């Protein structure tokens, strides 16, 4: 019995630790700055959602923008950049960056917000 | 109206009305399907308007940043939104419904409409809207088609009867002419035949009379003519003839008719073997019975070979006449009861005899059994009891 509980415990602890790590990295690498600069994450998310529709397509578009931050690669309107400065290129590796984008999209996902009237 | 006229008219009406019905049914079916599509298109338009309404509400939802996004729902119709990969996002269906390529389709009694959402508010690229098909207009359409078909049926039936009568009229005229001719001819024939036969009888009854062969032949020929006259009269007046059915002693009748045909049998030197059960009775019209007996015996004599034999037997159950004549080929047996059909083309006679026998047998529900071997002989049996 003990042999079974121990690996399970380790697995759960490991997964929780990973989630907390991801959250920390997202906060540290992305949202902290966004908050400081008052960047409307909801608005950005909705804008990407309106253009790309699916998470996969959004992921690819955001990744492409992150790798090469440019007005041409962004879906935001040009006036947006008058108010919010063009972000600098991140020095995160691709794997972590993709992970962060996924986490970012999951944070603002609208699917979890839907309700229907009975 | 004659039986044959009625039959022709019914046949004509059946063909005419069934073909008209078929054409109308086909046209009605095509018209119904065309109009049904038209009615469905109207409902699709209504559905499309509803879809537009939902799109507007989704757009409004997209622009709100509340924590709860209440998806628009309506009691009479359902909807769902899908992303660009056609994955279900949200909707009011009980179960997630997948979508295909068609922009509108029907499933059971529901009509579905798929519209694109551009730009993709809340990620929605496709919007599926559905409602129950309103079947009332379809029923109204069906009802109208049925009423039209019934009215057209009545009009075309009347027209058919009118046309049928119009087409039959020349045929009726010809038949009437022919009947009148036969009536007149038979009437004209009766007098000389009766005169000949009566005079032969007078001659035979005189004391100093010596019957000569020539006179014998005249008697036979006159009797043959007389029988043909009776057959023609019977056939001609058969449809107007009122049968006087009585309890008749067939045995007695058969013996009388055998005497009548004895001269004819003698000429062909036929040996007639008779086996008659006494007092065999049947409920039958006398004239019908004479026609049957006469035709069976005269055929047995006519189609027999010289020096042959005839077997006649009467029992409570049947009357059987067999001969040793030319016989009938197998393929002719089925056709033999047909009017004017002669089994042996080389022999004389009208061939109407068997037709008369057949008519009488059918009328009384008897069974006519014809057994024959070509060039060996024929047996005709009428059974009234199984």
What does this structure look like?
The complex is a heterodimer of chains A (118) and B (386). By secondary structure, chain A is mainly α. Chain A has 5 helices and 1 strand. Among the domains of chain B are: 3-134, no CATH class; 246-383, Heat Shock Protein 90. Chain B is 54% helix and 19% strand. The relative contact order of chain B is 0.07. In chain B, the strands form 3 sheets. Chain B has a 5-stranded antiparallel sheet, with helices on one face. In chain B, strands 8-10-11-13-12 form a 5-stranded mixed sheet, with helices on one face. Mean pLDDT of chain B is 86; it is low at 339-350. The two termini of chain B are 37 Å apart. Strand 1 (114-116) of chain A pairs parallel with strand 1 (69-71) of chain B, so a sheet runs across the interface.
Largest sheet of chain A: none
Shape of chain A: globular
The H-and-E topology of chain B, N to C, reads as HEEEEEEHHEHEEHEEHHEE
Strand order of the largest sheet of chain B: 3-2-6-5-4
Report helical residue fraction of chain B.
40-55%
Distance between the termini of chain B: 37 Å
Strand-helix topology:
The complex is a heterodimer of chains A (118) and B (386).
Chain A: H1 2-36, H2 41-52, H3 55-67, H4 78-83, H5 94-108, E1 114-116
Chain B: H1 3-62, E1 69-71, E2 77-82, E3 88-91, E4 104-107, E5 110-116, E6 126-132, H2 136-205, H3 213-237, E7 245-249, H4 250-267, E8 271-276, E9 281-285, H5 286-302, E10 309-314, E11 318-323, H6 330-335, H7 353-364, E12 367-373, E13 377-383
Parallel strand pairs in B: 8-10
Antiparallel strand pairs in B: 2-3, 2-6, 4-5, 5-6, 7-9, 10-11, 11-13, 12-13
């Amino acid at each position: 019995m003990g042999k079974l509980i121990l690996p399970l415990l380790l697995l759960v602890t490991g997964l929780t630790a990973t989630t907390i790590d991801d959250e920390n990295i997202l906060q540290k690498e992305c949202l902290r700055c966004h908050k400081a600069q008052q960047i409307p994450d909801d608005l950005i998310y909705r804008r990407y959602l309106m253009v790309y529709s699916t998470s996969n397509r959004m992921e690819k578009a955001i990744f492409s923008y992150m790798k090469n931050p440019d007005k041409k690669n962004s879906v935001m309107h040009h006036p947006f950049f008058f108010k919010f400065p063009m972000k600098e290129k991140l020095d995160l590796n691709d794997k972590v960056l993709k992970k962060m984008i996924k986490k970012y999209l999951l944070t603002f996902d609208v699917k979890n917000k839907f309700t229907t009237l009975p | 109206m004659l039986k044959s006229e009625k039959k022709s008219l019914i046949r004509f009406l059946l063909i005419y009305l069934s073909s008209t019905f078929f054409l109308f049914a086909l046209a009605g079916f095509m018209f119904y399907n065309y109009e049904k599509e038209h009615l469905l298109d109207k409902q699709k338009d209504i559905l499309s308007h509803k879809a537009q309404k939902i799109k507007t509400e989704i757009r409004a939802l997209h622009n709100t940043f509340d924590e709860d996004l209440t998806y628009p729902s309506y009691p009479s119709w359902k909807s769902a939104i899908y992303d660009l990969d056609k994955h279900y996002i949200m909707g009011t269906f009980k179960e997630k419904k997948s979508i295909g390529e068609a922009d509108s389709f029907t499933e059971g009694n529901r009509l579905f409409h798929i519209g694109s959402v551009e730009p993709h508010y809340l990620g929605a690229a496709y919007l599926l809207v559905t409602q129950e098909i309103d079947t009332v207009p379809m029923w109204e359409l069906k009802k109208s088609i049925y009423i039209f078909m019934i009215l057209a049926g009545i009009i075309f039936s009347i027209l058919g009867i009118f046309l049928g009568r119009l087409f039959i009229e020349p045929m009726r005229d010809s038949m009437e002419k022919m009947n009148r001719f036969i009536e007149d001819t038979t009437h004209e024939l009766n007098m000389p035949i009766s005169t000949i036969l009566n005079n032969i009888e007078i001659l035979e009854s005189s004391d100093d009379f010596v019957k000569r062969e020539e006179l014998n032949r005249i008697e036979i020929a006159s009797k043959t003519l007389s029988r043909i006259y009776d057959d023609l009269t019977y056939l001609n007046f058969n449809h107007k003839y009122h049968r006087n059915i009585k309890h008749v002693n067939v045995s007695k009748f058969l013996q009388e008719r055998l005497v009548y045909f004895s001269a004819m049998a003698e000429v062909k030197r036929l040996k007639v073997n008779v086996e008659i059960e006494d007092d065999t009775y049947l409920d039958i019209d006398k004239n019908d019975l004479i026609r049957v007996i006469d035709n069976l015996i005269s055929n047995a004599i006519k189609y027999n070979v010289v020096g042959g034999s005839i077997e006649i037997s009467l029992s409570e159950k049947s009357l059987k006449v067999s001969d040793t004549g030319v016989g009938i080929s197998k393929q002719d047996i089925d056709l033999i009861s047909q009017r004017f059909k002669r089994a042996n083309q080389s022999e004389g006679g009208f061939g109407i005899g068997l037709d008369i026998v057949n008519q009488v047998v059918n009328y009384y529900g008897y069974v006519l059994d014809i057994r024959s071997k070509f060039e060996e002989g024929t047996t005709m049996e009428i059974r009234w009891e199984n």
